[in-house]
Amino acid sequence: MEFHLLGPLTVIDDGVPVPLGGVIKRGALAHLLIHANCVVPTSGLLTALWPGDTPLTARKMLQNAVRDLRRVLSSDPARHRGSGGRAALVTEAPGYRLRVDPETIDLFRFRQAVERGHADVAAGSYESAAGVLREALGLWRGVALADLVEDGLVWPESTAWENTRLDALEALFEAELACGRHQAVLGELHAVAAAEPTRERLSCQMMLALYRCGRQTDALAAYRRIRVELVERYGLEPTREMQKLERQILEHAPELDPPSRPALINVATLPRTDTVRGTPPPGRAGLTAVRGRTPRPHRLNDFTVERKRITLVWVRHTLEGQGHDALSVQDGLREAEKAVREEAERFGGTMAHAVGPLFSTLFGHPETGENDAARAVRAAFAVRDRLTAGSTGPAPVAPATRAGLHVAVATGDAYLLFRHGDADAAPRVTGEVADRCFRLLALAPQGQVRVCEVTRRASEPDIAYRVGPEPPDGWEAVRIRRQRHDGADADASAAGPWSSRLRNTPDSPPTPPANGPGPTLPQVPA
Asked: Which one, of 163, 164, 144, 169, lies nearest residue 154 by Cα?
């Protein structure tokens, strides 16, 4: 006989499933199999079978179930020759013992295989480990004891088994990645990591697989999603190991390269911000150094890569209230994307990619200007006020559909990736500035525009900020400065909607005087 616990409880006798009867009989057998060859007290069986109030007839019902199980297990002994021997259920104070060969129980075979797989990983025998762990995980046929779970019998042992299964999956992915099979496991790894977002080892493995497949931007986006989940739900930062992996991906650290490169995989190394790389070694794809204002960007697989200084504006848009259907959410996101796009273009910016409720615009592309940071902050004000005040239409926005806005602005060096043959499309942005903007957005209070220190210094002649020491969640931009005709500075209050006043602002700033203090933004009408 064979006993299967890693899925619906099943007993196989010579390849034929054995009928087990009702939930009491199946539950008793499962609990005895979990503690095979050990004495299980009668009180423990009663608690396992009736987690709540135990009925007065529970002990009699258990005795009947044990009698029926003995009939199932004590069928003709000749049928079990060569099939692992016969299981026996015996009475032994203070309860019962199920004598059975552990090799006939899939749970024990799984545990033994997982131990061998972990030992092979620790020894560096990754090929052997991958095979052993694949075989072990193949014993699972769904949720452990799924039929009993459906009947309301949920035991803590099943949670421990699930954790062991996830540990085995992590060890398997580690072995597969060490063998250079990042492409082969990426789909499976992505599915498991998405189902278990709090297991950071799985998330790190997914980021590494994405990076090795040449998808650096996706790897960094995965890190940012995980960090938002941890910060917003648990108030925790990612582990040091995950933060280190993110830095290594940003720097294209050579230790992330696979030990053996699949034939069709060609991963190139981007230049670091603090070093200059020469021509890559023969047989390895790469980039030559980007020195200052390089007139011709370099190619990376299907992308052209350019390094330059830009300002990013990121907006996270959520609908407040409850009871939103899918159509209202789609309409809200569509209107938000339209508002972000129009306001960014009105101030000379470019709409980048939108992922769900997250919208990104960039300033300083295709041409870099000295007032990019100021124009970006003004666009951030306009987007915030247009969406929160509902100025996309003449009618006021109902409270149930008002939007919650988080806005962040960051300035710094970035790598812009352009897909070949699609010059008109917005570039993908990666690098330190994207990471800084993401961190600001995760901490930005609702309804405020938060900027980094670099943005504040670059835009302070035109934007007023709240006075005080530098806050950890960025500087709060509070108003736009305007210049009177007599040259005296004054502040335009940010109390009311900005959009009605900002819409009359010309798109291009005036040319500054030759010896003036620098570029200023257009005047805001009184």
From this structure: 144
Residue 482's CB is within 10 A of a number of other CB atoms, namely 18
- HSE, side-chain direction, 13 A CA sphere, residue 397: 20
User: Looking at residue 184, what DSSP letter applies?
Assistant: H
DSSP structure string for 134-152? HHHHTT--SSTTHHHHHTT
Q: What is the pLDDT of residue 261?
A: 44
pLDDT tens-digit map of 91-148: 998 999 999 999 999 999 999 999 999 999 999 999 999 999 999 999 998 889 988 8
Question: Residue 70 is which amino acid?
Answer: R
**Poorest-pLDDT segment among 320-324, 390-394, 436-440, 446-450:** 390-394
Best CA proximity match to 146, nearest among 2, 5, 3, 7: 7
Alpha helices, H only, 145-276: 146-150, 156-178, 182-195, 200-212, 216-234, 240-251
Highest mean pLDDT among 269-273, 318-322, 388-392, 469-473: 469-473
Cα distances (angstroms) measured from residue 386 to each of 55, 313, 360, 496: 64, 15, 16, 11
**Count of beta carbons in the 10 Å neighbourhood of residue 371:** 21
**DSSP, res 312:** E
Beta-bridge partners for 412: 310
Q: 């996706």: which residue's tokens?
A: 218
Residue 361, token pair as written in the block: 């615009």
Q: How many CA atoms lie within 13 A of 427 on its CB side?
A: 24
Tokens found for residue 386: 């247009």
- Cβ within 8 Å of residue 522, ≥6 positions away: 505, 506, 509, 510
Closest among 490, 483, 477 to 510, alpha carbons compared: 483
CA distances from 221 to 217, 226, 358, 447, 497 (A): 6, 9, 12, 24, 33
Find, among 47, 52, 2, the residue nearest to 27 by Cα. 47
Listed in sequence order, the residues at least 6 apart from 37 whose beta carbon sits closer than 8 Å to its beta carbon are 97, 98, 99, 100, 102
Q: How many residues does the chain have?
A: 526
Instruction: Give me 114's structure tokens.
Output: 């997982």
- Give exposure, 146-169, as e/b (b: 16+ Cβ within 10 Å): ebbeeeebebebbeebeeebbebb
* 195, HSE (Cβ side, Cα atoms, 13 Å): 9
Identify the CA nearest to 102 among candidates 91, 114, 93, 110. 110
Tokens of 526: 């009184």
Cβ 41 vs Cβ 50: under 8 Å: no
> What is the phi-psi region of residue 258: left when phi exceeds 0, alpha when psi lies from -120 to 50, beta otherwise?
beta
Q: What is the C-alpha to C-alpha distance for residues 62 and 168, in angstroms, rounded to an integer? A: 36
Tokens of 179: 């063998």
Question: What tokens were used for 354?
Answer: 């939108």
- Under a CB-based contact definition with an 8 Å cutoff, are residues 319 and 330 in contact? no
DSSP letter at 321 equals S
